[in-house]
Amino acid sequence: MRTTVRIVTAAAMLAFAGAAFAQKGETVRIAWIDPLSGLMGPVGNNQVRSFQFFGEKFSGAGNPAGVKFEVLALDNKLSPAESLNQLKAALDQGVRYITQGNGSSVAGALIDAVAKHNERNPGKEVIFLNHSAVDPDFTNSKCNYWHFRFDADTSMKMEAITTFMKDQKDVKNVYLLNQNYSHGHQVAKYAKELLALKRPDVKIVGEDLHPLAQVRDFAPYIAKIKASGADTVITGNWGSDLALLIKAANEGGYTGKFYTYYTGVTGTPTALGQGSAGRVFQVAYNHYNMGGEMGKWQSEFQAKFKDDFYTGSVIHIYKALGEAMAKAKSTDPVKVAKELEGLKFKTYNGEVEMRKTDHQLQQPLYMTVWQKADKKFPYSVENTGMTLALVKEFPSFVSSTPTSCQMKRP
User: Fold this and answer.
1) What's the pLDDT at 21?
2) Distance from C-alpha of 386 to C-alpha of 207, rounded to nearest angstrom
């Protein structure tokens, strides 16, 4: 009888152990759907290398679930329609996880398509891991159970920018220049609302929206900014739209300050050069001089690709997936989504939390300024001899914004 009990107990323990590590050794494929061509191609190429680089770092023993990550790169040409075609291609290959971030217009189309697919195809659900698309509506009025955002949204970053600007007495006349799509509209909207609340003395002296990834000469916009008397420009521009804007500002003799979201992104640091020192600020959830493990990874990435790593949400995604899959004891998106909700995990910028209410990651933000690299802030961005130096850190509770999300769960 005792022998029988021992055998049954041992069998139960083995079964439990098998269940606990059922996902170990599995390959989790992630379809990366972003631009690899066109004006924003350089940004996409950097980011897909980032996903592949950290996919290797966090595979196997690099994550508590023991899974292997594999990235399928799909060029969407920054087009919502092409993105839907690439989503279908990924689904046809059995991919259950997708990621995207360049362009909220694209993200909106994918969120909707993923939701419809999951509703129509029970047992084949897909999770959308949003690495950089920051339209606040995605975690408010358009929130969806299958969408998780690992970047800070537009309103969170503007909360930090205006908190910083509140004490900058040299900011008196502001010009808003943004890309003509949802993100650009939201940057302008929140800038006006939050400045009116925190700095009612500041005047908005001009506002422009321009086509996304189409303008090659920003000289006319710089002329308007100078004519307005603006001492400060707030812009959510990214990629070529920010690099060419800064280039035109330097060539046109504009000496005002820029408050940006994406100064550290491919091409812009080179456009800034030394002439922009002390005049260009960036708010983001990471920066080039964080040191520690992040500093080591940045050095390895630079040595391998002759390029700079800046999309830190990639790390958040792999860490969250590894922990959620370990907790779920599965790679099934249905089970993993439940574990992602409310997940707290430690990463390079401290402990962060995937807020259950709306699936918006809560994390610290950093204000940095463009300056010459030195002993305290040594990382030379794009080999310019310049860097983004830390000016102020905003804890999660400062940049966190409320949500109107009414999450519908399956």
Assistant:
1) 52
2) 30
* Identity of the residue numbered 88: K
What is the 3-class SS of 251-319, one letter each residue? HCCCCCEEEECCCCCCCHHHHHCHHHCCCEEEEECCCCCCCHHHHHHHHHHHHHHCCCCCCCHHHHHHH
- pTM metric for this prediction: 0.93
Residue type, 29: R
Q: Return the pLDDT at 202.
A: 98
Query: CA–CA separation, 273 vs 371, rounded Å?
Result: 9
pLDDT tens digit sequence for 341-364: 999 999 999 999 999 999 999 999
| Cα–Cα distance, 287 to 290 (Å, whole number) | 6
Partners of 149 in the β-ladder: 130, 360
DSSP string, 48-115: HHHHHHHHHHTSGGGSTT--EEEEEEEE-TT-HHHHHHHHHHHHHTT--EEEE-S-HHHHHHHHHHHH
Of 204, 274, 218, 209, the residue nearest 246 (C-alpha): 218
- Count CB atoms within 10 A of the CB of residue 406: 10
CA 16 to chain centre: 37
Q: What is the pLDDT of residues 265-321, one digit of tens each?
A: 999 999 999 989 999 999 999 999 999 999 999 999 999 999 999 999 999 999 999
